[in-house]
Amino acid sequence: MTTLETAQGYAAGMGGLPFDLPASVRIQEVGPRDGFQLEPAVIGTADKINIIDALAATGIPALQLTSFVRPDAVPQLSDAADVMAGCTKVPGVEYSVLVPNLKGAQRAMECDADVWELMLSSTDAHSIANANRPTEAAFELLRPAIELGLANDVRLVGAMATSLGCPFEGRTGFDRVAWVTGLYADAGVGHVTLADTAGLADPAYVYDMCRRLADAFPQTTITLHLHNTRGLGMANVLAGLAAGVTHYDSSIGGLGGCPYAPGATGNIATEELVHLLSLLGVDTGVDLDALIRIARGPVRAAVGHPLESSFGKADPSWVLHDPPAQQVLPQPAGT
């Protein structure tokens, strides 16, 4: 047996979890967009492309590469078109971009992305901070981008910031999240992302929101986009799994954050997510060792500071080490 199999067997011997686990989970790596967007030091376009191509070779099924926002709003992503043009597309990997409005969608049309992820805040206060208008008005500005994507057979995902808690309004109610999901569904978008933008969620809240939303919109696919601001990221993943969610966003190294959510820190780390799911016997198709090498190597070098992920230093829990050499202690005098 490998040590990973031993760890999985030990977990099974302890009785497992009080809910059924899915056979597999689909992970989208968002580090090149969400992870890099707030980095203070400029990351070179060539470095971004090298990291993206390395991540695509790990078996990750989906990558969010960049965002077509105004360059002055997010200078780190001002090279969006160059990044898209420079990446080497890997068959079977889905490449997505964030599209905030019609102008961004028009730019995205020129770059052959597989998926457009649309951005909308679930709460008015965050929407005003982020888009300078309340949620409903922001959606009306987004509607032409949706129509353009659907007319060109682009797959669309409707992201919902602050859907699991808002730093300005507090807990986001289910009715509000269901209303935003309904806006997307009525416009033809059948996949939504629940984002814990400020890292305010807890497992009970995540479970309740996901379960109720899945019941209310059985034809809609749900992705969880979790941040680890208060150390509850992996616990919230377990709550999502219990609720039946099988799509997750994560960021290499635990990088990320939102400029319009005070105190928000990084996303859940992709390598920590894959590690957890590996221990649970849930297939991701992702090479954990390769992820760790990328995080410790090119990602750490590109950002120039320690990463949020525990795998910046630690190895997977099933990796064993040689014990220290046994020391022969001197015998006490007179024995």
Give a description of the structure:
- There is one protein chain.
- The chain has a single domain (20-312), classed as Alpha-Beta Barrel (TIM Barrel).
- The protein is globular.
- The chain has an eight-stranded parallel barrel, surrounded by six helices.
- It is built from twelve helices and eight strands.
- The chain is of the alpha/beta class.
- The model has no long low-confidence stretch (mean pLDDT 92).
- The N and C termini lie far apart (46 Å).
Features:
single chain; 335 residues; alpha/beta; TIM Barrel; eight-stranded parallel beta barrel; 12 helices; 8 strands
Q: Radius of gyration from the CA trace?
A: 21 Å
- Overall pLDDT metric: 92
CATH class: Alpha Beta
CATH architecture: Alpha-Beta Barrel
Count of helical regions: 12
The strand order across the widest sheet is 1-2-3-4-5-6-7-8
Strand content: 5-15%
Question: How many strand units?
Answer: 8
The name of the CATH superfamily reads Aldolase class I
Looking at CATH, which topology would you report? TIM Barrel
Give a short account of the largest sheet.
8 strands, parallel, barrel
| End-to-end CA span | 46 Å
Number of domains: 1
Q: How do you describe this structure in short?
A:
The protein is an alpha/beta fold.
List the helices and strands and how they pair.
Layout (H helix, E strand, L loop, with lengths): L2 H11 L12 E4 L1 H5 L9 H12 L5 E6 L12 H7 L7 E6 L2 H8 L5 E7 L2 H8 L3 H17 L3 E7 L12 H13 L4 E5 L7 H14 L4 E5 L7 H10 L4 E4 L19 H11 L7 H16 L32
Parallel strand pairs: 1-2, 1-8, 2-3, 3-4, 4-5, 5-6, 6-7, 7-8
